[in-house]
Amino acid sequence: MYRNIIKVSRGNVSHIRRIFSPSPPPSHFGLRRNYSNKTDQIKVTFKKHNGELITVSGKEGDSLLDVIVNNNLDFDGFGACEGTLTCSTCHVILKQEDYDKLPNRPTDEELDMLDLAYDLTDTSRLGCQVVLSKDLEGLTVQVPATVNDARSS
Amino acid sequence: MMKRVYSTISQLKPNVCIVGSGPAGFYCAQQILKLLPQSTVDIYEKLPVPFGLVRYGVAPDHPEVKNVINTFTKTGDNPRVNFYGNICLGQDISLGDLTNAYHAVVLTYGADNDKKLNIPGEDGKNIISARSFVGWYNGLPEDASLDLSLDCEEATILGQGNVAMDVARILLSPVDQLKSTDITEHSLEKLSTSRIKSVNLVGRRGALQVAFTIKEFREMTKLPHVQTVFRNEQLCGVHEASATLARPRKRLTELILKTSNPDESKSNCSKYFRPIFLRSPTEFKLNDNGAITGINFAVNRLEGPLDNQQALVTEDTELIPSGIAFRSIGYQSRCVDSDIPFNEKSCTVIPKEGEF
Description:
- Chain A has 4 helices and 5 strands.
- By secondary structure, chain A is α+β, with helices and mostly antiparallel strands.
- Mean pLDDT of chain A is 78; it is low at 1-37.
């Protein structure tokens, strides 16, 4: 019986992703270098609350949540709503200069969810809304100590 | 001797049992599987199907919130996890059976009793528990035959949390919008005949203390053909106070103030959502048939520092006419097995060392 329901909600994911995904970053954003195929990968470092650094890579256009999922990073509770802007479990904290570098400011809807996150800062973003561009090569973000799955009903 | 002890420990494969398969149960199972690589986890559930409030609590027009079911399903697919549905602790199986059979028992069966107001008239007709209403529109078997009438123009919800918001939104949403969700047929049928035009959302305290969150409130302000109407005299001083608030409360308060501005009025509205502050219900007014016609409220005033204001009852009262009322003032847990150390007053399990 619940197989059906899962199918339905998966259908909705793609639907909602289309609505909410920020537009792709401009292709000439930042300094353009001659990367070979391999360097299409953009390195991102996640700093866990215990200080552990995890460096992985993702493709241009991937969200930080995609990077975490694609690399099977085990951050407890991360990405509960699968990037549909209905929870705050993919909360990450950026350095001010990286925050300023992002082409899109958070929307009201993203801020609404961030307002429910623990350890909210002025440079907090939801990982599902931060899209990798070449300009973000070497980005380091902090994963807060606790996620607050503050979704209500 | 020591060696033997060590070998015993290394061979110990903890068998853990979790009672209740809602989010708490599944998140707990995830952690046990991760931290104890030798463990097995058996999840017991009263209903035939898993996921508790994710399935039966999350509103049908919020399907994205249910995506977490995919993560839970992965946990359930783990060969070290077993799911046993249709087994009720305290009826089909006792806590003693479980503690005998497992190294550890985790109770995550939640809080399925709604709190009562304990005021006169509370057992009258069409005074509905919000929990049952949610179960009714979500297909919870025990609420399928909920007896309610939507043949009135004014509804009142007591409580200002997100469950109260869900109830208000379901009552005010265009039925066509609900049709595309997986809401139950019986509730859709009933809602399509609803005459409700105005929904009051009444709380004891003020605009700065509301429990609902900004996402739910923003959604109400965007509902088609529904105008959110505040009593503007109740928002006096709120603007001044909002400057000192932390960002989440500040943004919510600013949205409340923006919505209360007549410039934000929507045109073509046929339904009204009315948050009302500083009122404590004192009595349900019933007609000769025992059905609700209105609610008497005491008018409250706030006292105390801004970050901890309490509602104090004054001598003023107000009668709000209402053909249906929903009680949405929170839930409490139940002691389902007499062996559970339970505090009947707080409705919580009494913590003991080694037990949580």
